[in-house]
Amino acid sequence: MRKNSGQKVIIDSFDLAAGRKMAGKYEVLSLLGSGWEGEVYKIREIRTGIERAAKLFFPQRNIGNKTAKSYAQKLHKLRQVPILIKYHTEEILLIRKFPITVLISEYVEGDLLSEFLKKFPGQRLHPYQALHLLYALTCGIEEIHLLNETHGDLHTDNIIINRFGLEFDVKLLDLFHGPYPKKETRQTDILELIRIFYDTLGGAKRYSKLPVTVKQICCGLKRSLILDRFRTISHLREHLESLDWSSDTF
Ligand SMILES: Nc1ncnc2c1ncn2[C@@H]1O[C@H](COP(=O)(O)OP(=O)(O)O)[C@@H](O)[C@H]1O
Ligand SMILES: [Mg+2]
Fold first, then answer.
1. Predicted confidence (pLDDT) per residue in 159-213, tens digit
2. Ligand nearest to the CA of 58
3. Which of 150-171 are b and which e, b meaning 16 or more Cβ less than 10 Å from the residue's Cβ?
4. What domains appear along the chain, each with residue ranges and CATH number?
5. Is 173's C-beta closer than 6 angstroms to any atom of ligand 1?
6. Which of 211, 154, 152, 197 lies closest to 179, judged by CA?
7. Residue 54 C-alpha to ligand 1 middle, in angstroms?
8. How far is ligand 2, taken at its centre, from the CA of residue 247, in Å?
9. Considering the entire predicted model, what is its pTM?
10. Were both Cys, which of 83, 106, 202, 242 would link to 124 (CB 3.0–4.6 Å)?
11. 108 lines ligand 1 (CB under 6 A)
């Protein structure tokens, strides 16, 4: 823990040990991951034995509890959307005598997309698999957009692959709570989604060898082309549902 010149408390790691009790109700099991806003631990609710995830916010990223509050409110508003993790409750934890906000949510089993890709030769998916993943993400994000909300921070460390077969069961974490207009953030979601698709296919190294059907979606990652072709996420979903690959080889 440090204090900067304005005496603002800065914490960049909590280092909670396994077995530590939280708020008298939970027990820490392990660290799941960390990012810009905080650290996330797998915890167990002591009375029920149920596993959950606890996101501890770094105080400097959660001034006035704004970040945690808006994340919780957004998850609550979107609680019917299956692609999003479920919010449970908020707790305050004293760490090194400093109050830290903890957001308790559903624990999601599976691999982050970034880790999942490492299991495949060349760290990339077959175009057909990548299309299935893109379709699952598109349908999930479409539900968010139809409720007049956005994700705003889609990347391979905010996507958990829960199960996959022909269908992908995916979960999204970490909604962005910024000041940007909704229309712009909806466009960002579409652009980031297509960027993820492009990356799962092997990125720039593989692009020239990809089937035309796939290139028509990636549009060479040209922002204006993508937004022109897919004016809304629903356009992208409809496009995927009626793909014509009769002249393509996969
Ligand atoms: N509900 C959850 N279930 C399982 N793992 C999670 C969960 N929430 C977060 N994680 C893990 O913790 C990491 C950081 O969480 P995230 O909410 O993305 O924090 P940040 O805003 O700091 O990036 C994620 O990349 C993921 O590995
Ligand atoms: Mg994150």
1. 999 988 889 999 999 998 888 888 999 999 999 999 999 999 999 999 999 999 9
2. 1
3. bbbbbeeebbbbeebeeebebb
4. 2-106 (3.30.200.20), 111-241 (1.10.510.10)
5. yes
6. 152
7. 9
8. 39
9. 0.94
10. 202
11. yes
